[in-house]
Amino acid sequence: NAGVTQTPKFQVLKTGQSMTLQCAQDMNHNSMYWYRQDPGMGLRLIYYSASEGTTDKGEVPNGYNVSRLNKREFSLRLESAAPSQTSVYFCASIGQGREKLFFGSGTQLSVL
Amino acid sequence: GQQLNQSPQSMFIQEGEDVSMNCTSSSIFNTWLWYKQDPGEGPVLLIALYKAGELTSNGRLTAQFGITRKDSFLNISASIPSDVGIYFCAGSGTYKYIFGTGTRLKVLA
Question: Is the CB of B58 inside 8 Å of chain A's CB atoms?
């Protein structure tokens, strides 16, 4: 049972390039999340999807778009990467009932 | 953006000592979660709390959901070197989970 899987693990972009971070969970969870983590800032919520077919903005959504492709997959897209988006990105998911948020292992993104 | 106030930011302790950290919020939460993060890894869930006043243990770890629903604390008893890492609290009202800024724990053998 893989849990929450993120790809890629590492990525280097030039300013202005675009890319999509992929996330998939195999726990049949309803809700999925994207966070970014910067030194000393903890984890900040970018976007979340409470259920398949819905997405909502979190604390820091500017410069990002998301797609809840199906119940398993939730992708994060950077249309025009900026150095300020250099960060570690984490995907997470949670099921109904007793709510425990599970994380993937992260994507380290550098924008030059 | 909204974040929880987590304290202390960092602490150095001797092996065998007890550790206490807490989180406070201006908002009421229905769920409190405590995580540990090791370098290069994603956060791993330690304890989940679902009711005001709830006290839950997981081995040497004990956490409580504050009566006001605006705070939570985590205690680690008899610390060992592998307790080193960053500890995060997270609170949720409905679907949004907001995280504290973390407590960096260093244990001196």
Answer: no
